[in-house]
TrEMBL record:
Chain segments carrying region Disordered: 315-352
Function: Catalyzes the reduction of the C14-unsaturated bond of lanosterol, as part of the metabolic pathway leading to cholesterol biosynthesis.
Reaction equation(s) it catalyzes: 4,4-dimethyl-5alpha-cholesta-8,24-dien-3beta-ol + NADP(+) = 4,4-dimethyl-5alpha-cholesta-8,14,24-trien-3beta-ol + NADPH + H(+)
InterPro entries on file: ERG24_DHCR-like, Sterol_reductase_CS
Pfam families reported in the protein's UniProt record: ERG4_ERG24 (PF01222)
Membrane topology value: Multi-pass membrane protein
Pathway given in the UniProt record: Steroid biosynthesis; cholesterol biosynthesis
Protein species of origin: Synaphobranchus kaupii
GO biological process: cholesterol biosynthetic process
Broad enzyme group: oxidoreductase
Protein name as it appears in the record: Delta(14)-sterol reductase TM7SF2
Length: 352
């Protein structure tokens, strides 16, 4: 890459409270992750308890944590590059080109599941991850800062057309947070696309399973509540990976630069806060009746149906606004290009 010698056009509009927000969020969000983990493991499990149950610094480090984190990232990177599945084109970029993306996330998930099952069969104590949650979270937070710094520095060798519209203000703190470069790649390896669904989302499933195994260690069998949490959230992750191509039309890929906001969300926020329900149940088991469980399953089924229908139609509209699946041509949309929720759900639009 050559250093771009042309003066770039800086963005003037700012989000998230501008520079102040972009400075505070990277400081407070990591503390929030550690705080929420501490609350789940505390006897009271209350957000209102004082003083807040932040973990001592001695619990934030374990030599095994960086090994596991780097090993997981290396495994997912290797699976990302496997020549399996199809290759899809992304949306049209400002220069008129389209990037190509491997659609093999579900394949990677299946291979990861087989490898995980093999290690469990060999006797790996997966439940020990419960003891490593704090150091794993701390390492993921540290990795988020390091990767974000690398992305910010390398963006100065990117062309103007490769920069995102929202992270090119000229303010270092804000641009570090939002991300200057839209689609940073090392060769054909797309860093943003890789992080979007793979290490964090699949890591969430692994943490959930580890919490289930820890509950088995403590109580000889998993609770109904733990099984439901694992099952529902596994369905969500599998759905995302099965429909991986749809992520190519989302704002994260099409519009947002790859900076701390997305890096931290992908590598730290998703795996360690989305798994809080399972973490909570290890320390605070909740009994659930059969009728209550059936009602929850039914409610989740309805919610999943709405979620899948609306997201499928939204993706179709982004790719082809004139598709028959998006309703009648000429009907109204919101100013941001989104169809109303009722439109995305039932497939019809009100007449103008």
């Amino acid at each position: 890459m050559k250093l771009d010698k042309h003066r770039s056009t800086h963005t003037t509009e700012k989000e998230f409270g501008g520079t102040l927000g972009a400075t505070c969020v990277p400081l407070f969000l990591p503390l929030t992750v550690l705080y929420l983990l501490s609350v789940c493991r505390s006897p009271g499990a209350s957000l209102l308890q004082w003083p807040p149950p932040l973990p001592p610094t001695s619990q934030l480090w374990h030599p095994l944590a960086p090994v596991l984190l780097l090993g997981w990232l290396a495994l997912q990177s290797f699976l990302y590059m496997l020549p399996v599945g199809k290759v899809a084109e992304g949306m049209v970029l400002r220069d008129g080109s389209r990037l190509k993306y491997p659609i093999n996330g579900f394949h990677s998930f299946c291979i990861s599941a087989i490898l995980l099952g093999l290690t469990l069969w060999l006797g790996m104590p997966l439940g020990y991850l419960f003891e490593l949650l704090f150091p794993l979270a701390a390492c993921s937070i540290g990795m988020s800062f390091l990767l974000s710094l690398y992305l910010y520095l390398r963006s100065f060798w990117a062309t103007n057309q490769a920069l995102s519209s929202g992270g090119n203000t000229g303010n270092p703190l804000y641009d570090f947070f939002m991300g200057r470069e839209l689609n940073p790649r090392i060769g054909s390896f797309d860093l943003k696309y890789f992080c979007e669904l793979r290490p964090g989302l699949m890591g969430w499933v692994v943490i959930n399973l580890a919490m289930l195994m820890k509950e088995v260690e403590l109580r000889d069998s998993p609770s109904f509540s733990m099984l439901l949490v694992n099952g529902f959230q596994l369905l969500y992750v599998m759905d995302a990976l099965w429909n991986e191509e749809a992520v190519l039309t989302t704002m994260d890929i099409v519009h947002d630069g790859f900076g701390f906001m997305l890096v931290f969300g992908d590598l730290a926020w998703v795996p360690f806060t989305y798994s809080l329900q399972a973490t909570f149940l290890v320390i605070h088991p909740q009994s659930l009746s059969t009728i209550g469980g059936i009602a929850i399953i039914a409610l989740n089924g309805v919610g999943y149906y709405i979620f899948r229908r609306s997201n499928s139609q939204k993706n179709q509209f982004r790719r082809d606004p004139h598709s028959s699946q998006c309703g009648r041509p000429g009907d109204h949309f919101h100013s941001n290009g989104e169809a109303p929720l009722s439109v995305r759900l039932v497939g019809t639009r009100p007449s103008p």
